[in-house]
Amino acid sequence: MKVFIIEKGFEEHELRVLKEIVGSLVSSKEDLREKVEIVQCPEFCEEQGIVIKVIGELNPERSSGQLFIMFKGGLESNIVKFAQRMGAVGIFPIDRFYGERMEYGEISRFENVLKNVLRDKLSTVFLNGTLRKGSTGK
Fold first, then answer.
1. Are 99 and 9 a contacting pair, CB within 8 Å?
2. Residue 26's beta-bridge partner residues?
3. Is the separation of the CB atoms in 122 and 50 below 8 Å?
4. What pLDDT shows up at residue 59?
5. Which of 3, 25, 40, 103 has CB atoms 3.0–4.6 Å from 96's, for a disulfide?
6. Is CATH 3.30.70 what the domain over 2-114 is classified as, yes or no?
7. Helix 12-28 and helix 104-132: axis angle, to 10°?
8. Bridge-partner residues for 51, per DSSP?
9. CA distances from 136 to 37, 133 (A)
10. Residue 137, class by beta-carbon neighbours within 10 Å (0-12 exposed, 13-18 middle, 19+ buried)?
């Protein structure tokens, strides 16, 4: 499973913080470790996976996987409308993940939602793989 971090309009340290949070979550959960790859890409990716779109400028690209939206500053109505139109899983303020405005509650909420989406996707993938194997039980 791939987690794509699409970098548009954010600063390097903000992307680094986001990547560290996602990496820490994946490495700390045994059921996610070695099953999830974090990919940073400048543009939209066509592959299936979890997409974390860092919004600097709104672009109505349709993601092929689950979509998380990160924003900075105030939550504007156009970001909410974009998230609704795209079927986003969550909208999170990246400026609450570091610095003076850091909120551990917001980081925890992001991690919980991401963890649940990853586990849901992986359970489907591994269930399908398991079903293809022959059964030797009762």
1. no
2. none
3. no
4. 47
5. 103
6. no
7. 50
8. 4, 67
9. 32, 9
10. exposed
pLDDT tier for residue 97 given thresholds of 50, 70 and 90: very high
DSSP 89-109: SEEEEGGGSSGGG--HHHHHH
Phi, psi for residue 51 in degrees, rounded to 5:
-115, 125
Query: What count of other Cβ atoms lies within 10 Å of the Cβ of residue 51?
Result: 26
Structure tokens at 98: 């570091």
Neighbours of 42 (CB within 10 A): 8
Amino acid symbol at 86:
M
Q: Quick check: 49 and 2 in contact, CB under 8 A?
A: yes
> Could you tell me the pTM of the whole model?
0.76
At residue 27, the pLDDT reads 92
Tokens 């790859």: give the residue: 37
